[in-house]
Amino acid sequence: MSILNVDKLVKEYASKRNVVITKALNGIDLKVDAGEFVGIMGPSGSGKTTLLNILSGIDKATSGSIKISGQDIATMTKDKLALFRRKHLGFVFQEFNLLDSLTVKENIMLLMILDKSEFSDIEKKSDRIN
Fold first, then answer.
1. Which of 35, 43, 96, 102 has the highest count of CB atoms within 10 angstroms of its CB?
2. Inter-residue contact 77 to 53 (CB < 8 Å)
3. 27: number of Cβ within 10 Å
4. C-alpha span between 129 and 99 (Å, rounded)
5. How far is Cα 9 from Cα 63, in angstroms, rounded to an integer?
6. Residue pLDDT tens, the chain, 130 long
7. Do residues 129 and 104 make contact, with C-beta atoms less than 8 angstroms apart?
8. pLDDT at residue 68 in the model
9. CA–CA separation, 34 and 120 (whole Å)
10. How far apart are CA 49 and CA 76, in angstroms?
11. Contact call for residues 70 and 84 (beta carbons, < 8 A)
């Protein structure tokens, strides 16, 4: 069963006059099945971060389609996409994207609180962090 389907994904960066300056992604096709592990490798400037930002909905593609678990993320509103990311996607960033005023455990608990999880579940799951 496929969990990610990418078809003819293109990302272009243009000048203020709509002249294409850079084609960061040029017709990417990608399929990831459930249980697969995928690594994205390439030299600096090859489009790795651009691809991941588009796959996560952080950025928009110029053209092409992305379906995650059968859902077309391009058709989602900003709020629906944020909720979809929180419930269905996980990120490991090169730089820490945590709230400095919270511990790691509290940062993880925050996501479950935003998801309106039961407090007993939040405690049980976050206790595994220590």
1. 102
2. no
3. 11
4. 17
5. 6
6. 889 999 999 999 887 777 778 889 999 999 999 999 888 898 988 999 899 999 999 899 999 999 999 999 989 999 999 889 888 887 666 666 677 788 878 877 887 888 888 888 888 888 877 6
7. yes
8. 94
9. 30
10. 21
11. no
Which among 53, 55, 40 has a CA at the least distance from the CA of 4?
A: 55
Residue whose structure tokens are 């950025």: 59
Closest CA to 4 of 27, 25, 35, 26: 35
Tokens of 64: 């092409």
Report if pTM > 0.90.
Answer: no
**What is the separation of C-alpha 113 from the centre of its chain, rounded to a whole number of angstroms?**
20
CA 82 – CA 41 distance, rounded (Å): 26
